[in-house]
Write a structure and sequence with these properties.
- InterPro entries: Endonuclease-V.
- It comes from Bacillus zhangzhouensis.
- DNA repair enzyme involved in the repair of deaminated bases. Selectively cleaves double-stranded DNA at the second phosphodiester bond 3' to a deoxyinosine leaving behind the intact lesion on the nicked DNA.
- GO terms for molecular function: deoxyribonuclease V activity; magnesium ion binding; RNA endonuclease activity producing 5'-phosphomonoesters, hydrolytic mechanism; single-stranded RNA binding.
- The protein is 30% helix and 29% strand.
- By secondary structure, it is of the alpha+beta class.
- The chain has one domain: archaeoglobus fulgidus dsm 4304 superfamily (archaeoglobus fulgidus dsm 4304 fold).
- The relative contact order is 0.18.
Length: 233
């Protein structure tokens, strides 16, 4: 894709994100006691037959039964180039196809990526919320530095956290989910507040990882499916 087309895409994507932003609500639109099924969403990429392909996996976890109850995936060619800050446009078609395969009604979607913690407050978790029509959470393993602002490291204890404040606005939170492990970077996607986001993430942490179970399992599943697809090539 030439530079002119990429510039046109950038303007189109920025315009779409700008139109969605006023619809973002960083407050709960649900009763916490009714939350049961949490879905982790992840997308991985690979090259096959000279084309860039992607696989999206969704893993649904039952908070009451404490077990995975459903796994679905989709895969296909990636038709949108990688442009920093516009990941949602690249991944949304695969996410949409995977969601169609779910049989369980999901209460909250949790993404391996950012939500409100984004240059235009429109990370994958936030932008995808409008497709899903459900509250969403962003969970990132690495920090997205915005306007040169660094984060403050939380104390080395479980559930220690510091807020990420940029231009006097809270974008997200640095959360230490376990002692002696690196923190993760969480943010609201949509229709949920930051304290509830933190509470739900912590409920989904076990001794195996610093990441919440649905996101970790979705990540594992994407790598497994990608490996199978590459073997078939």
């Amino acid at each position: 894709m030439n530079n002119d087309k990429i510039i046109d895409l950038l303007e189109k994507f920025k315009s779409e994100q700008k139109a969605l932003l006023p619809k973002v609500q960083l407050k709960n639109n649900f009763q916490k006691e009714n939350i049961r099924f949490i879905a982790g969403v992840d997308v991985a990429y690979f090259d096959m037959q000279g084309k860039t392909k992607g696989v999206c996996c969704i893993v649904v976890f039952d908070l009451i039964e404490k077990q995975v109850i459903e796994k679905v995936h989709s895969h296909g060619e990636i038709r949108v180039p990688y442009i920093p800050g516009f990941l949602a446009f690249r991944e949304m078609p695969l996410i949409k196809d995977a969601v169609k395969k779910l049989t369980k009604q999901v209460d909250i979607y949790m993404f391996d990526g950012n939500g409100y913690l984004h240059y235009r407050h429109m990370g994958i978790a936030t932008q995808a919320s409008f497709l899903l029509g459900k509250p969403t959470i962003g969970v990132a393993k690495s920090y997205l530095k915005i306007n040169g602002v660094d984060f403050t490291m939380p104390q080395n204890k479980e559930n220690a956290h510091t807020d990420i404040i940029i231009n006097n606005e809270i974008y997200g939170r640095v959360l230490r989910t376990r002692v002696n492990v690196k923190p993760i970077f969480i943010s609201c996607g949509n229709w949920i507040d930051l304290d509830t986001t933190t509470e739900i993430v912590m409920k989904l942490i076990d001794k195996s990882s610093r990441l919440p179970i649905p996101v970790r399992f979705a990540d594992i599943e994407t790598h497994a499916i990608r490996k199978k697809l590459l073997i078939k090539e």
